[in-house]
Design a protein that fits this description.
With 537 residues, the chain is an alpha+beta fold. The protein is built from 13 helices and 22 strands. It has 2 domains: 416 residues, no CATH class; 85 residues, Immunoglobulin-like. The protein is elongated, with a radius of gyration of 26 Å.
Length: 537
């Protein structure tokens, strides 16, 4: 048995109350987040909470463009052990540091002569052989933080480690691109999270973009009836009448029931998935993609990677679940030569890795970097970054990370999803190196296909002193048209109602609205977006 190494106080089980406090803070945060009925609303798919957030112009472009692409984030919660996920073959330092938990070389399948994966992940071998899998070595940030709670916030907000950012990287993107998120929300959810935990990734400075529900029965209620909560069978007692009112209110607020019901009924799973929660999540994602829900970004997760003790069996089971579910997912997408498997990119991420040292409980404590795995997308196979150097171990620290996690995010945003560099830099907070050749790049960038467009205004020749304000919307939904003064204050709401997609003209006569002569702005809000133009009346 090797000597137990603890990288810092609180990272190991043996640190007692300090380690317990890390988990208690995490649990308390999750409990408080989960107890709200509706942020914007919520649902659960097959016993798995689901959170959806609103679209950006990029996501809208993906919905209709010829370069249809999907992103599926695979969260491995707890800190996945990268060294035992992808092993540097024949590395004596690895086996010396981990005499009990290391994966023997004869139990690996070959990624290359130098690297292998445990044989219990051999479901991934066909993806590697088909050029649909890459490994990014030793992904992390500096200096590392070993608290689950804090590191998760860093990873999901894409902040510097010493900055406590209150918004998520996707939340910032969505809030900027969809200024009318609250006023004129879109009718289709282009992004969805399926899983147990909540985090900063969906948080904006205006609202939490999450939608959540808490039981499988609620999902089936949606899929079968289009309702979030059942209302039949309730009696006339005060308690039941109150419950009826709450359920009717929640049903009325849940705007995505119809499209989810339609996609779920239309989609089908054509392969068998294993009987575990992770496979179940990906089966749902495949069914919704194949059912043309319109969602382009998904996030699923698997918990349990905090392997402080008895790691061998626990980690084997987790990676078996992951590899089997990912294989079934891409086989399902490829069914019938649909080509969908080439349009979907899967990406694993975890809040940190595990220590290079085996501890005294036949496990590993919190460490620095971990590997990120990419799947699908016709991406080819290969390796990015540098494997951790285990030749000169530090007894109180791990080798430094190789790739900043924000470079991975920036590359996905820019090359896979087609963002312009300026938008990518805004989302990430600053510029990060793009990893060339990581994924096939969209060229030119997709940009914004304008879910709504404020086309401008013209004087109405037939009625002097009046104007025709022209706009187009590309999806049915709420539309709001307002007049603002030069300071940005709303003076009049000209139109606020549901409209069908198409081109529209609003006849605006300032005197009928008691608008004095001067310079104003008129603002269109629709499809989650907002546009303004100046008008002189």
């Amino acid at each position: 048995m090797c000597k137990k190494h603890t990288l810092r106080f609180g990272a190991a089980l043996e640190d007692g109350e300090a380690h317990h406090l890390e988990h208690e803070r995490w649990t308390r945060r999750e409990f408080l987040s989960a107890t709200g009925l509706l942020g914007v609303g919520g649902l659960l798919l097959n016993r798995l909470p689901v959170r959806t957030f609103q679209p950006s112009p990029l996501m809208a472009a993906l919905a209709n463009g010829p370069d249809d692409r999907f992103l599926v984030l695979l969260r491995l919660d707890g800190g996945n052990d990268g060294l035992n996920t992808v092993v540097q073959r024949g590395n004596s330092h690895y086996y010396n540091l981990r005499p009990s938990v290391a994966i023997p070389d004869n139990q690996l399948w070959a990624l290359s002569p130098e690297y292998g994966m445990p044989q219990f992940t051999n479901d991934l071998q066909p993806l590697w052989n088909k050029g649909m899998m890459k490994v990014i070595f030793n992904v992390g940030y500096e200096p590392p933080n070993y608290s689950h709670f804090r590191s998760t916030d860093i990873i999901t907000s894409a902040s510097d480690p010493d900055v406590k950012e209150q918004t998520g990287w996707l939340g910032r993107y969505l809030s900027d691109q969809y200024a009318a998120f609250l006023e004129a929300p879109p009718t289709v959810p282009p992004a969805m999270q399926i899983g147990v935990q909540s985090n900063l990734v969906f948080e904006s400075d205006r609202a939490n973009m999450a939608l959540s529900v808490s039981s499988p029965q609620q999902f089936y209620q949606i899929a079968q009836t289009g309702q979030l909560f059942p209302t039949a069978g309730l009696g006339a007692s005060p308690r039941e009448l109150e419950l009826l009112f709450v359920r009717q209110t929640a049903n009325a607020a849940f705007r995505y029931a119809e499209v989810i019901q339609e996609a779920y009924n239309k989609g089908r799973n054509h392969v068998a998935y294993a009987d575990n929660s992770f496979a179940e999540q990906l089966a749902i994602v495949a069914r919704l993609i194949k059912g043309n829900l319109g969602t382009k970004i998904f996030m699923v997760e698997l918990t349990g990677f905090d392997t402080h003790s008895a790691q061998a069996n626990m980690h084997r089971n987790l990676l078996t679940w992951v590899s089997g579910a990912v294989r079934s997912f891409f086989d399902d997408l490829a069914y019938g030569n649909s080509g969908l498997e080439k349009k979907v990119l899967g990406m694993t991420f975890s809040e940190f890795g595990r220590s290079i040292y085996e501890n005294g409980s036949l496990g590993t404590d919190h460490g620095w970097g971990t590997h990120t795995l990419l799947f699908g997308g016709d991406i080819g196979n290969g390796f990015v970054g540098q494997y951790a150097d285990l030749s000169k171990p530090d007894p109180v620290g791990d080798p430094p990370h190789s790739v900043d996690f924000r470079s991975v995010y920036a590359t996905i945003l820019q090359d896979w999803l087609g963002n312009a560099p300026g938008v990518t830099n805004f989302v990430m907070g600053k510029s990060f190196p793009i990893l060339p050749g990581l994924v096939p790049a969209i060229a030119p960038p997709l940009g914004d296909n304008n879910k709504c467009a404020l086309l401008g205004h013209n004087p109405n020749a037939a009625q002097p002193g009046s104007f025709d304000i022209k706009y187009s919307i590309m999806q049915n939904g709420p539309v709001r048209l307002q007049i603002l003064d030069k300071a940005g204050h709303v003076r009049r709401t000209l139109f606020d109602a549901y409209q069908v997609k198409g081109s529209h003209i609003f006849h605006f006569k300032p005197t009928e609205w008691y608008i004095a002569p001067g310079i104003y702005q008129y603002r269109l809000q629709a499809g989650g977006q907002a546009f303004q133009r100046e008008i002189r009346v």
